[in-house]
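Quick start: what a row looks like.
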Amino acid sequence: MIREVNYNEIFDAQVHFRIILDCMARPGKVNNFGKITVHSPDNLHPASALVAFALLNRDVSFYANKNNSEIAEYFIVNTYSKPSAIKNADFVFINGTDDGKILLETNTGLLEYPEKSATVIIDVDNIYDVPKDQTHEIILKGPGVESEKRVYIRNISDHILQSVKEQNAEYPLGIDVILTDSVGNVMCIPRTNNFSWN
């Protein structure tokens, strides 16, 4: 498995962490990681690999897309984090076309410790600021959004969106979502957000 020797675990991770934080603070804002030089497995966006490098470490656990052994090994080698069953994982990596029911097994935290919930990273084909054919229109409202924000996602299933909605129905419990696409775009839907879609 490839060890990403060109990725700087301090400087690159800090840059990407700030990008993710900006997206989380401004739901629906589309940022881009810029030039990506990592060599992630075929079924994992390089942008999702950068999310992993910024957030995973030896103290957290992850669930990789359908227990994918190639992704799991890649994360272990490059982040020292450990694989876990989805119900116990701190970070969950799936594809936008997966069966959304799997998200109903994710950890939504405890009332005493809602921050102990999972963060879900979802690979989609494209994330746009403007309407495009064959996309879901996501309408975001709540903290960090002035009035409402619309974003357009290609290749995310209704089942996944519905499962996220169900998991976030009892705030402060819930899951935070990070979407990445094939050209390095990243966008977040935090659990505080009340979103809908068409």
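That is the whole record. Residues 72 and 132 are 33 Å apart (CA to CA). Helices lie at 11-25, 46-55, 69-79, 158-167.
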